[in-house]
Amino acid sequence: MVVTVRSLGLNGISGYEVSVECFLSGGLPAFDVVGLPDAAVRESRERVRAAIKACGAKFPVSRITVNLAPAGQRKEGTVYDLPILLGILTAAEELKPLPADAAFLGELSLTGALRPVTGVLPMALCAARMGIRQLFVPAQNAPEATLAQRITVYPVENIAQLVAHLTGDAPIRPQTPWTPSPVSQALPDFADVMGQENVKRALEVAAAGGHNVLLIGSPGSGKSMLARRLPSILPDMTRQESLQTTEVYSVAGMTDPSHPLVTRRPFRSPHHSISAVGMSGGGANPRPGEISLAHNGILFLDELPEFDKTALETLRQPLEDGVVTITRVSGSLTLPSRFMLVCAMNPCRCGWYGHPSGRCTCSESQVESYMRRISGPLLDRIDMHIEVPSVEYEAMRRREKPETSAQVRQRVNAARDIQKRRFAGTAVSCNAYMTPAMIGEYCLLDQAGERLMKGAFDRLGLTGRSHDRILRMARTIADLDGSERIEAAHLAEAIQYRSSNLLK
Question: Is residue 459 packed enough to be buried (19+ CB in 10 Å), middle (13-18) or exposed (0-12)?
């Protein structure tokens, strides 16, 4: 008799249904798992055998064949332990036929207890789409699974508990849908930063439109401090954005069981020694890299020239497309990577080029060589090039309290609301992601603006890409000002953010 148990698998961060087919036949006792299993799936045979005996059931003395369909899709991980066990027990008539609308997933211990697995949210979302109404998962994964909604999630502690539920002896109480509670930990506030008002304004524009930023300044000028306070002025994530980000973190095994939904925009700050694979994702079993973990949030690269050139160049395609495609022999994988890129760097190797103290020891050729570590195509994809001056003594001793992040955030939210209405019904969420057609529609210039843009184009040697990015920034500045049209003043401010003397 062939018994089919419904389960789920992962392809990147997308779930798909897996049918676990179990067949018991005569012949010499054997236990085979087919359907392109990896080493972890093949090892499930011993975990299943021990778990069945531990829960008091009899392991069938038969030839057991387990097929994981679709057989052409590679199966990875320990998620199939539970459905394999249930398929064997049902085929051996130790259990009654399983509900047709139920799916099972989980890793088994040798004692029959269930251990948590990764990627539960994307699998639960797939289950809801495939018409599955009951999902049985390890107890620690149950709160995360409820985020999918439209399905009943049962938290399972061990096999004995599940068997008692399936036989009707002791039903398992469904998991209560998880709801987010206020996060108590406060983010670093802009009020901590004394002076640097021009830079704060630039970061406000960046937050309002989702623009990429490069901060250039000497050591101690506050580049990292400002960048780490940028999340405090970003708008709240929508539920859809939270689910998208949580899917990535779930696959990476980085969700918090007590707070499974990512409700704060990610802030990823990898060390400059990171490899290209660590940045983009991949490996033998491809997993999300930093650019995917920063999805819907911020990727902060401190000391930008110190990063490996190959790692930096992996950013070029994701910055344009919002996705990263990883190609391996086994196939290709596409991961989301829509993030704000925030970078910080010194103007030279010693860090003091252009400082009022005159302590720079670098020659002009050394400064140019240091700057050339960043490729032109990557710089062209960064909207704003901001020089961060040294903090003046008077600013450090100023008694009036700087503007708080909450005050700045109100203006950012107002600008984002304008953009939300403007792009309603499209996949575009903010000005930074406007298509060329949208730029032609929403970024019209008057005669004064056209003259200003033409002068900047010729003087600064702008490319077509940088021309469009300036227009997107100008649109954001106009939104912050509550203006329907892009005025010359809005455009002039946007051009200013692309005209750093240090990058010429």
Answer: exposed
Q: What is the pTM of this model?
A: 0.90
CA angle 420/422/426 to nearest 5° reads 75
Q: Where in the chain is the domain with CATH 3.40.50.300?
A: 190-503
pLDDT level of residue 330 (50, 70, 90 thresholds): low
Half-sphere exposure of 96 (CA within 13 A, CB side): 10
Q: Which string of b and e fits 226-255 if b means at least 16 CB within 10 Å? A: bbbbbbbbbbebeeebbbbbbbbbbbbeeb
**95 neighbors 86 (Cβ within 8 angstroms):** yes
Q: What is the pLDDT of residue 301?
A: 96
Contact yes or no for 205/477 (Cβ under 8 A)? yes
User: 146-197, pLDDT tens digit by residue?
Assistant: 999 889 999 999 999 999 999 999 999 999 999 887 666 778 888 888 878 8
- If you compute the radius of gyration of the chain from its CA atoms, what whole number of angstroms results? 28
Q: What phi and psi values does residue 287 have, to the nearest 5 degrees?
A: -130, 160
CB 375 within 8 A of CB 312: yes
DSSP state of 130: T
Is the separation of the CB atoms in 360 and 326 below 8 Å?
A: no
Instruction: Give CA–CA dist 417/405, Å, rounded.
Output: 18
Span(s) in the chain for CATH 3.30.230.10: 2-166
CA 221 to chain centre: 30
Per-chain mean pLDDT for the chain: 90
| Encoded amino acid at 200, one letter | K
pLDDT band, very low/low/confident/very high, at 119 (cuts 50, 70, 90): very high
Architecture of the domain whose range is 190-503: 3-Layer(aba) Sandwich (3.40)
3-state helix, strand, coil in the chain (%, to 5): 40, 20, 40
Angle of helix 239-251 versus helix 120-129 axis, rounded to 10: 120
The interaxial angle of helices 159-166 and 44-54, nearest 10 deg, is 70
What the block records as the tokens of 75 is 């199966």
By mean pLDDT, which of 5-9, 128-132, 312-316, 374-378 is the weakest? 374-378
486 phi, psi to nearest 5 deg: -85, 110
Helices and strands per DSSP (H, E), number in the chain: 21, 18
Is the predicted pLDDT of residue 327 greater than 80, yes or no? no
Maximum alpha-carbon separation in the chain? 89
pLDDT given for residue 220 in this prediction: 84
- Give the fold, CATH level 3, of 2-166: Ribosomal Protein S5; domain 2 (3.30.230)
